[in-house]
Amino acid sequence: MTDELAQEVLRNAEKLVTAAVRQRRPYEGRNFPRPGEDPGLIHIVREVLGEHLGREPSAEQWQALVQRIREYLAVENKRKNLVGEGFEDVLSQVVRRTVGNPAIELRTRALLHELPGFGREKSGEKPNKVDVAVLGPSLRTLVTAKWSVRADREKQFVTDFADYVGAESARKPFEYVFVTNEFDPARLMRACELLSGKNRLFDHVVHINTDGIRAAYSGKSDDTVKRVLELMEEGRLIGLDKWIGSLKGA
């Protein structure tokens, strides 16, 4: 899958180069910057490796280096997107097949304003997508599903919830659930303890393998690890099986 993605990125890059050559033809000889030139990136590389360079690379070699770096970053970012979307799709299928209730509907990457009980999209605003929505006669659960957690995502959780609350139009409660495979104890602890006002942000924090957490933390005794284990004992951090079991009774 990653190899196919890399090949597609390279094909797109070749198309862009061809289009750029055609577009620049009327301006030849006017010393305009070439497509893809990135003096800032070249400056960083030169600054870090300058004394180790046997000789100054040619303009063409610098250009090739910049292109290779950009291709790598493009593939890596898209790979992360594939992992994230794959996690959402698998989670949705696991819930659908395990719950086995035809009255419960699951949607992945659905637009918020298209979900029951949430207002229409506001003109000019960026569309808000929900990773997984679990919907039923008495059930509205918005799931943020992240294979791992970055610092910027922690801030996004709060922003997304504010958007959900602002768009809610049915005046009925809904659940906000976080499902993850994150193993970093500090990030798990923060997810469990995030607040919205005076209330916990997430109704449930769900890990796909709580037995794996216990095994990974075995022999560790720092305060953060202890706190995560306490959160599991308290039922604040629960396993995927327990969360799905709660959906069966909804």
- Rg of Cα set: 24 Å
Give, in spatial order, the strands making up the sheet with the most strands.
1-2-3-4-7-8
Record field, number of beta strands: 8
Structural class: alpha/beta
What fraction of residues sit in β-strands? 15-25%
Largest sheet: 6 strands, mixed
Low-confidence stretches: none
Estimated helix fraction: 40-55%
The total count of helices amounts to 8
Oligomer: single chain
Shape: extended
The run of helices and strands is: HHHEEEHEHEEEHHEH
The overall pLDDT, averaged over residues, is 84
Gap from first CA to last CA: 37 Å
Textual characterization of the structure:
The structure is a single chain. With 250 residues, the protein is of the alpha/beta class. 52% of the residues lie in helices and 16% in strands. The protein contains eight helices and eight strands. It has helices at residues 2-24, 39-49, 59-99, 151-167, 185-193, 210-217, 223-234, 240-248; strands spanning 105-111, 129-136, 139-146, 175-180, 195-196, 199-200, 204-207, 237-239. A six-stranded mixed β-sheet has the order 1-2-3-4-7-8, with helices on both faces. Strands 5-6 form a two-stranded antiparallel sheet. Strand 2 (129-136) and strand 3 form a beta hairpin. Helix 1 (2-24) packs across helix 3 (59-99) and helix 5 (185-193) packs across helix 7.
List the helices and strands and how they pair.
Blueprint: H1 2-24, H2 39-49, H3 59-99, E1 105-111, E2 129-136, E3 139-146, H4 151-167, E4 175-180, H5 185-193, E5 195-196, E6 199-200, E7 204-207, H6 210-217, H7 223-234, E8 237-239, H8 240-248
Parallel strand pairs: 3-4, 4-7, 7-8
Antiparallel strand pairs: 1-2, 2-3, 5-6
Helix pairs in contact: 1-3, 5-7
